[in-house]
Amino acid sequence: MNAFTEPVTLTGPLVRLVPLRPDHHDALVEAVRDGELWNRWYTSVPTPEEMAVYIQDKVAAREAGTANPWVVVRNADDQVLGITTFLGIDPLNRRVEIGATWQRAGAQGTGANPAAKLLLLAHAFDDLDAIAVEFRTHFHNRESRSAIERLGGKLDGVLRSHQIGYDGTLRDTAVYSVTAAEWPTVRVGLEYRLRARLEA
Question: Which segment of the chain is annotated as a signal peptide (predicted)?
Answer without folding.
Answer: none
